[in-house]
Design a protein that fits this description.
mainly alpha; elongated
């Protein structure tokens, strides 16, 4: 399930839903701002996940 929520298909679906809502509510600027926020949060999540993997690997090497 973790890979689904970080996949391109999920992000595309969310952006389409947000775009439809923004079109009907006339909040196009909000749509772009939320899109940027989603992209930034996805990048932060990826970096934190990589850091956690490196810490786990180095922790295992220290125990051996």
């Amino acid at each position: 399930m973790d890979k689904f929520f970080t996949s391109t298909a999920w992000n595309t679906f969310i952006l389409v839903v947000m775009g439809i809502i923004a079109f009907f509510t006339k909040e196009i600027v909000t749509f772009f701002m939320l899109g940027f926020i989603i992209i930034i949060l996805t990048n932060i999540y990826g970096v934190l996940k990589d850091i956690a993997r490196k810490i786990d690997r180095s922790g295992r090497n220290d125990r051996l």
